[in-house]
Amino acid sequence: MAGSGKFFVGGNWKCNGTKDSVSKLVTELNAATLEPDVDVVVAPPFIYIDQVKSSLTDRIEVSAQNVWIGKGGAYTGEISAEQLVDIGCQWVILGHSERRHIIGEDDEFIGKKAAYALSQNVKVIACIGELLEEREAGKTFDVCFKQMKAFADSITNWADVVVAYEPVWAIGTGKVATPEQAQEVHAAVRDWLKTNVSPDVASSIRIIYGGSVNAANCAELAKKEDIDGFLVGGASLKGPDFATIINSVTSKKVAA
Ligand code: PEP
């Protein structure tokens, strides 16, 4: 079963940038010619979201890279979903491998964050993915399904969720998954959603791939039927490359 959702490309800027480099990237993105039938979202560091919101074309939506688990208050250093809404930030990335494996966020914590963000009308890019040793041990599906279950235990409104499959061994390493490797997991996750959530959610949800996607490899990946777009780290910091990745939707159309 292939997905029926609109192509989606997100740019995760991670902990990169200065006011000047953000301004340059926004200028490049504003000047880019983008295919119309793609949802595009960029995720700057929190402190630059306001700058990006006030200078970036409305064609591109803005995401945070994290959010607090509940209502704001005495939580030093955190940012709440209500605050994201206040500055017009419509999305948040949750479950990114860097937050799972470097910061130590666990499945349940991530699931609860997703539920709270959705309750405040902040849409969620829900990341899953296996470590290299998990893939080598034949546990890729087990790991991805366990991470999906944690999201499913908390999420009721899947209309505002995009799932990002990001094998940890492919993130920031230059070792992109082959189109076949990505397609295999995307199809399995879609099937898991069909059985464990609903056939409607399974067919309408976008399942995007992340991990060393660049301007050169995006077209082949985009052709796969269950790859509904990309989450892009390094290459999203270069406006023209990010635009090429967004426009890889054209190779999907040719393949269809
Ligand atoms: C990411 O961090 O979401 C990511 C996919 O990074 P990169 O494209 O740099 O591998």
Automatic annotation (TrEMBL):
CDD domains reported in the protein's UniProt record: TIM (cd00311)
UniProt family annotation: Belongs to the triosephosphate isomerase family.
Recorded GO MF terms: triose-phosphate isomerase activity
PANTHER family per record: TRIOSEPHOSPHATE ISOMERASE
Assembly behavior: Homodimer.
GO BP term (any one): glyceraldehyde-3-phosphate biosynthetic process
Name of the protein in its database record: Triosephosphate isomerase
Record's keyword terms, sorted: Isomerase
Pfam families: TIM (PF00121)
Coiled-coil residue spans: none
InterPro entries: Aldolase_TIM, TIM_sf, TrioseP_Isoase_bac/euk, Triosephosphate_isomerase, Triosephosphate_isomerase_AS
The keyword Isomerase belongs to this UniProt entry's keyword annotation: yes
Pathway: Carbohydrate biosynthesis
GO cellular component terms listed in the entry, alphabetical order: chloroplast; cytosol
